[in-house]
Amino acid sequence: MARKPKDPTVLHGHRIITGSDLRAAFVEQDGLDNPVRMRRRILHGVVLVLLVGLLAAGVVVALAIMNGQIKIPTAERSQAASLCPDASFDYTPHDKIKLNVYNSTGRPGLARTVAGEFLARKFVVGAVGNTQSGYRGVALVVSGAAGQSAAFSVQRNLPGSDYVQDGRNDPSVDVILTGDFKSLATPDLVDQTPGKLSCPRETRRVADDPKWPVVPTVVPASPNP
Questions:
Q1: What pairs with residue 89 in β-bridges?
Q2: Of 141, 160, 139, whose CA–CA distance to 151 is shortest?
Q3: Residues contacting residue 144 through CB under 8 Å, at least 6 positions apart
Q4: If DSSP codes are grouped into helix, strand and coil, which group holds residue 163?
Q5: Residue 155 falls in which region: left (phi positive, over 0), alpha (psi -120 to 50) or beta
Q6: Is 180 helix (H, G, I), strand (E, B) or coil?
Q7: For residue 224, what are the CA distances in angstroms to 90, 101, 126, 159, 220?
Q8: Which residues, 6 or more positions from 149, have their beta carbon under 8 angstroms from its beta carbon?
């Protein structure tokens, strides 16, 4: 009597798991997990796109701020705005104005030269010397509240200058010559009609402005102020 062929997948009564069985099992398992994996992949893709978008937006905003296209109001800027008087002043006669002239540039003899020009226009010139200032512009015109009218007249002779108020009580005015100074206005062309003090510094880009207000520090006079 012929023997029945042995089943190669059965050994001692136990079924042998073949490679085909394993592949079939894993394929079935992967098929069950595919929707979950797909949702995860979609979520990860969305998060990645959002992060890249935020990074790109941050770079664009930073560049716009650096280029002055976006201005951020600061407490420093607000303080600066409050220091520019809004009153209108009459032109004060030159012989009623006492001013001090300081040179904050590297040009020797500039303060003395400009002081001589103010003297020729009948201003009362006091101190002439050197100073240090971080301001970048034509010139600073500095006075206390009592000297605002005089500072207005000085500014008319110094077109492009910036007015800064300090805490002094007397009506004296300081003129601080800075890097962009070229010359005083031609005497015949000085506007003597009433007007306001000029504070153009307030409209400049924050990135271009040093700390407000600039407090001049007078240094010992040199032979060529």
A1: 195
A2: 141
A3: 165, 166, 167, 168, 169, 170, 171, 172
A4: strand
A5: alpha
A6: coil
A7: 35, 13, 16, 25, 11
A8: 89, 90, 92, 171
Residues 157/115, Cβ–Cβ less than 8 Å: no
pLDDT in tens, the chain (225 residues): 555 556 666 666 666 666 666 566 555 454 445 676 777 778 777 778 888 888 888 877 777 666 656 655 443 333 333 467 889 999 999 999 999 999 999 889 999 999 999 999 999 999 999 988 888 889 999 999 999 999 999 999 999 999 988 899 999 999 999 989 999 999 999 999 999 998 876 544 333 444 444 444 444 445 566
Q: Max CA-CA distance within the chain?
A: 144
| Model pTM score | 0.57
- Strand-strand pairing, 98-103 and 195-196: unpaired
Q: d(Cα 162, Cα 178) in Å, to the nearest integer?
A: 11
Q: What are phi and psi of 152, to 5 degrees?
A: -60, -45
Tokens (6 digits) for 122:
């009948």
Residues 63, 176: Cα–Cα separation, whole Å: 34
In whole angstroms, give the CA distance from residue 193 to residue 159: 14
The per-residue DSSP string of 106-132 comes to S-TTHHHHHHHHHHHTT-EEEEEEEEE
> How many other C-beta atoms lie within 10 A of the C-beta of residue 117?
15
Q: Which residues, other chains included, contact 76 with Cβ-Cβ below 8 Å and sequence gap of 6+? A: 206, 211, 212
